[in-house]
Amino acid sequence: MGSTSRRRRGWAALLGAAALAVTAGGTLAAPASAAAQSTDVDFATHCIPPAIAGIPPIDGTTTARIDVDNAAPKVGDTVTVTYTVVKPAASNPVDLALPADIMTPTGKVVLGGAQGGEITVAGPKKNEPVPGKGAFPSFSMTGTFTVTSPGAINLSPGDYNIHTSYIMELDTPCTVTNGPAPVSETVNATDGGGTTNPRAIQLGTASGKPGDAVTVSGSKFTPGASVTLAGRAGAAQTGDTATVTADDQGSFSGSLTVNDKTTTGVVAYEGGAWSDDKGAGPAAYVVIDDSPVPPGSQKIKASVKAGTLSMTQAGDTVELGAVDYGQGGAAKGDLQTVTVKDFRGGPAGWSLTGKVTDFTGPGGASIGGDKLSWTPKCATKAGSPSTCKAGSAGAVGSAGATLASAPDAAATGGEFTVDAGLSLNVPQFTAPGSYAGVLTLTLA
User: Gene3D superfamilies under this entry (predicted)?
Assistant: First the structure.
């Protein structure tokens, strides 16, 4: 009786506390791929306040940081870049206090090293209230680029603009003095093998008023090809298009008039419709609506704040059933329920994957991680734009497997509940005792 009880307690600890994947509070930690080592950098900046402020240009110091969602991509991968201005060089140029959520930042990130060019980035209209003549708060802007060359790609903060929409539409552009600014982040790209799409585009600016034209420059397109320039609102193409012709080197520079106020980016592609194989972008672009208010009217504005992609788990220990020495077999149990919340907005889906270590026991005995298998299940909360899909049943192992996912789509998001039946195939004459392994889940 005592021996059986000890065996049961031992097998109950099989998935132990999920160290490296679980915090002390029991929630899953951020994926390692998202924890890139970026650095805050300082650089001299020349800012020009709006003329109405009646003050001279500001020469000060900006503190900024560049973060990426993947610091070790392959050629052909798309990397999301976040440019955070930790401390702007400029401040509110007028005595009038500015309310919350009236600042729209845009800017550029400069690439160097193995791959050159610039990335346009844009941020949401989101800010804390700013006192009159008070310092502008920190803000972040995002954009993407496609990796076209292997090697170390350096990312440096570039010029940025702070647009305020309160009573009047005002801009405070800030340029890097004696650029480029110091490198804040380095992406180490590897050759993905096979054929990749080398096409790339850059925008002359990351924002404009309705009806403004933005310059679109492209490289590495098919020489002589007809190229369509088009606006994007999320994953959907808008009605704003233009056509240019690539030169003998596959380069072009064209102009796209952007009227659609929902525009979030610009793409360029060969052929009659967008394709990943013959297109480039989207490059971030935001339309700033400065439409005048008719006499006797009031413009009423509202905004929807983007959230985050996150996950929590019901607990950090899984108890598997006991098996008998000499017989072996399946030690079964259930994964602690994982709840995924996708409140980002936009077209990106998500993937929840897991991998497990070997199970270590007494006297150096072990059970291979490839002996653990799961049967995933995933449920979507009613009203969610996305529908999650359970991963395939099978071995987890150290190489990992997909637990659940939701696809890219024009509209994504929602809440999802992920479960799985677990089974550890214990060899027949495994030494008696307690065995523990660590299952790490990564959400990306």
Answer: Neocarzinostatin-like (2.60.40.230)
Which neighbouring-strand residues pair with 110?
A: 118, 156
Q: Would you say 173 and 159 are in contact if contact means Cβ atoms under 8 Å apart?
A: yes
Same domain membership, residue 351 and residue 378? yes
Res 303: pLDDT: 65
Check whether residue 347 and residue 434 sit in a common domain: yes
Indicate the residue among 287, 304, 326 that finishes a domain: 287
Whole-angstrom Cα distance, residue 117 to residue 111? 5
Provide the percentage of residues in the chain whose pLDDT is more than 90. Answer: 47
Peptide bond into 180 cis (omega under 30): yes
The CATH number of whichever domain residue 133 belongs to comes to 2.60.40.230
For the beta carbon of residue 392, count every other beta carbon within 10 angstroms.
11
**Same domain, residue pair 337 and 244:** no
Q: What is the pLDDT of residues 39-74, one digit of tens each?
A: 899 999 999 888 776 778 889 999 999 999 888 888
Q: Which of 131, 45, 138 has the alpha carbon at shortest distance from 92?
A: 131
**Which positions ≥6 away from 19 have C-beta within 8 Å?**
438
Partners of 156 in the β-ladder: 110
* 38 has a pLDDT exceeding 80: no
For residue 90, what are the domain limits? 38-287
Question: 10 Å Cβ neighbour count for 384?
Answer: 16
Is residue 226 in some structural domain? yes
- Tell whether 125 and 150 lie within a shared domain: yes
Angle of CA points 249, 252, 257, to nearest 5°: 170
Q: Does some domain include residue 342?
A: yes
Mean pLDDT of all residues belonging to the chain: 84
At 153-179, the pLDDT tens digits run 999 999 999 888 877 778 889 999 988
Residue in 394, 389, 288, 406 with CA at minimum distance from that of residue 346? 406
pLDDT reported for residue 12: 30
Phi, psi of 350, deg, nearest 5: -150, 165
Residue 31 has pLDDT above 60, yes or no: no
Tokens of residue 237, six digits: 């193409």
Residues 228 and 356 in one domain: no
Same domain flag for 381 and 252? no
